Amino acid sequence: SWLFKPNSVIDETIATTKKRKFFVIGLTFLLVYYIATFMSRLIIAIPTYIIAFSDERFMSFIAEMANKTDFDAYMQEYQKSAEAILTQIVDDNMPLLNLFSLFGTLATIVVVIFYCCKIEKRRLFTLGFARKCAFKEYIYGLIVGLLMFSATYGIMLLSGEVESNGFDTDISVKMVLLYLLGFIIQGASEEILLRGYFFVSCAANTNVTVSILASSALFAAMHISNPGFSLLAFINLFLFGVFAALYFLRRGSIWGICALHTIWNFAQGNIFGCSVSGMPLEDTLLLT
Question: Which terminus of the chain has fewer CB atoms gathered within 10 Å of its CB, N or C?
Answer without folding.
Answer: N
